[in-house]
Description:
Blueprint lengths: L1 E2 L7 E6 L3 E6 L4 E5 L3 E3 L18 H13 L5
Antiparallel strand pairs: 1-5, 2-3, 3-4
Amino acid sequence: MVTNDGQRLTGIRVDEDTYSIQMRDLSDRLHSFWKSELVELRKMPSSTPMPSYREVFSEAELNDIVGYLASLRGGK
């Protein structure tokens, strides 16, 4: 997003309604703006700041992690 005063921010949208938007930047700081304060708001649904673990874990290790996380749901 770009504010009326030229500030550029990139991050994760935390909440949004018709008139305002709240986002957490890549330094984990929370920002809140009225949409009227923005000159640009670009949503990138296929983009994520989370790094890929494809090269870090083997397929078996990823399956183990997913299995463990699924087990935390308590049988639901």
